[in-house]
Specification:
The protein is about 35% helix and about 25% strand. Strand 9 and strand 10 (about 180-190) form a beta hairpin. By secondary structure, it is of the alpha/beta class. It starts with 5 loop residues before the first strand and ends with a helix. The longest helix is centred in the C-terminal third of the chain and has 16 residues, at about 275-290. The chain is built from 12 helices and 13 strands. About 35% of the residues are buried. The protein is globular and about 60 Å long. It has a 9-stranded mixed beta sheet with strand order 5-4-1-6-11-8-12-10-9.
């Protein structure tokens, strides 16, 4: 049985939604409390048993490579100061091999995945997008790997979204559902409002068989004038079964400003060192001015 030990993390986007902050800093390096966004994604891959990660980068993304590189001077400083807990945090990524390849042109997600084809070879692989952070008892991509091991076919992570937001996502047209696993009739990239066959949206987590590269090789342009991964998945689905799995866990959208801010607040409230002071600030600052029942809503 083929096992999933490699993962692709696309990180070549320009991050225009966060300009001017992302003019010189990759959006993947914007911090959620005290960790860059991409570190949450890499950590999920490590916890899921992934041994090799390839990060697809673009121009101006060198900070990502520097972050996951060793910093001997910093490590020595932390050792001398007895800050063992911080040393462990900065060395977390040493548990996995991280490789890099550059997407020379911004041609879309499908093209970014295709750029990593030689690294993947003839093996099944995971894809984790950086716009979605998932908190779950069992890491999200590990849940998908478990489904792949049962079916030996590609598995796409989905969750439900409001019907009025289905035009923002890839949407599945499910045939049946057994223990959260769906056979899928069709995968549709950003359908027009009112035309979506369901509200089950693709949420940035995939386990794919290497046959997907046969269709990405065609470089066909789809929605938004880009080479879409969803379109290639649909073509693969016409040749071999592709399943969707309604994964367990809470998904945080950090790909746009409001979601990023709300995620930061929620993660800060989960931090024992910060939670009490943040609640106090919110109550004192906003409860009096906006008359919001923040204490009851947040606690």
């Amino acid at each position: 049985m083929r096992t999933v030990k490699k993962a692709i993390i696309p990180a070549a986007g320009l991050g225009t939604r966060f300009l001017p902050a992302t003019k010189a800093m990759p959006k993947e390096m914007l911090p959620i409390v005290d960790r860059p966004t991409i570190e949450y994604i890499v950590d999920e891959a490590i916890q899921s048993g992934i041994e090799d990660i390839i990060i697809v980068t673009g121009k101006g993304k060198r900070a990502i490579e520097d972050h996951f590189d060793r910093n001997v001077e910093l490590e020595q400083y932390l050792i001398e100061k007895g800050k063992v807990d911080l040393l462990e945090k900065v060395n977390k990524s040493s548990k996995v091999n991280i490789h890099y390849i550059r997407q020379k042109e911004p041609k879309g997600l499908g093209h970014a995945i295709w750029c990593a084809r030689k690294f993947i070879g003839n093996e099944p692989f995971a894809v984790l997008l950086g716009d979605d952070i998932v908190q779950a008892t069992v890491p999200c991509i590990k849940q998908l790997i478990a489904q792949y091991e049962q079916t030996q076919f590609s598995v796409i992570g989905v969750q439900s979204v409001p019907h009025e937001e289905t035009n923002r996502y890839g949407i599945i047209d499910p045939i049946n559902n057994e223990n959260r696993l769906y056979r899928v009739r069709q995968f549709i990239e950003k359908p027009e409002l009112g035309s979506a066959p369901s509200n089950l949206a693709i949420m940035g987590r995939y386990v794919l068989t290497p046959e997907i590269f046969t269709f990405l090789e065609l470089q066909e342009v789809g929605a938004g004038g880009e080479i879409q991964l969803t379109d290639a998945i649909q073509k693969l689905n016409e040749k071999q079964p592709v399943h969707a799995y309604n994964f367990e866990g809470k998904r945080f959208d950090v790909g746009e400003k409001l979601g990023f801010i709300l995620t930061t607040i929620e993660f800060a409230l989960q931090n024992e060192e910060l939670a009490a002071d943040i609640l106090k600030f919110l109550e004192q600052t906003y409860n009096n001015t906006l008359k919001l029942p923040l204490k009851e809503g947040i606690s």
